[in-house]
Amino acid sequence: MKRIAVLASGRGSNFQAVIDAVGRGEVPAVCSALITDNPRAYAIDRAEKAGIPVFIVDYDASASKEEYEQALSEVMRAVAADGYILAGYMRILGTGIVREFRGRIINIHPALLPAFPGLHAQRQALACGVKVAGCTVHFVDEGMDSGPIIVQACVRVRQGDTEEMLAARILESEHRCLPAAIRLFCEDRLRIEGRLVRILPRTGESGSTNRA
Ligand code: GRF
């Protein structure tokens, strides 16, 4: 069984989707830690309810970004997870951490990357007038939301959508895509080939897709 650690900064609904999917036996993993930069994150309550150990590396209490990254990398090493899931982790990981844990850090982003990286992705999508939005689960590289894509799902933009309405529908698809991607990771079915993530079929299957 693989061990996964989740990094979250706030509400933690994606973290909850992972907890629930693990609980239903849909993801062959143990969720062994929540790591957060925010001592007030609601994700902490979710972890405590689920009996998952919480590690707080308080960004605001750190003297510098370097000190914070140093403390974060020590916690990441100490929890010794196979995979580290950024589920609403609102900071950019330093290159040292990305290099040390390359191929083992996965992020969820509320847009069809490579369109609309960074903050307020749903607002950016509406401002561009796109008809289709969605979410992306990808491996983390040194760039911003730029690593190899594992799973994507489309969400139709409706006329009159506000940012909140679109974000709510994208969030529903995030809650399906993130566990689906973690499952593939935990089943050792992902191969990173440059920018491409090849999904290996289950024994007895012939094809593969990048859709959840
Ligand atoms: C999600 O939309 C996620 O894609 C983005 O931040 C939001 C976090 O939501 N990175 P939650 O904390 O998982 O509820």
Describe this structure in words.
By secondary structure, this protein is α/β, with parallel strands linked by helices. It folds into 2 domains: 1-101, Formyl transferase, N-terminal domain (Rossmann fold, 3-Layer(aba) Sandwich), CATH 3.40.50; 108-212, Formyl transferase, N-terminal domain (Rossmann fold). It has 6 helices and 9 strands. Strands 3-2-1-4-5-6-7 form a 7-stranded mixed sheet, with helices on both faces. The model has no long low-confidence stretch (mean pLDDT 96). The chain binds 5-O-phosphono-beta-D-ribofuranosylamine. 5-O-phosphono-beta-D-ribofuranosylamine binds at residues 8, 10-14, 87-88, 108-110, 171, 174.
Helix/strand order, N-terminal first: EHEHEHEHEHEEHEE
Strand count: 9
- The CATH class label of the largest domain is Alpha Beta
| Most strands sheet | 7 strands, mixed
Strand order of the largest sheet: 3-2-1-4-5-6-7
Ions, cofactors and other ligands present here are: 5-O-phosphono-beta-D-ribofuranosylamine
Number of domains: 2
Through-space gap between termini? 22 Å
Helical run tally: 6
Beta content:
15-25%
- Helix % is 25-40%
The secondary-structure class comes to alpha/beta
Compute the gyration radius: what is it?
A: 17 Å
The CATH architecture name of the largest domain reads: 3-Layer(aba) Sandwich
CATH fold field value of the largest domain: Rossmann fold
Low-confidence spans? none
How confident overall, as mean pLDDT?
96
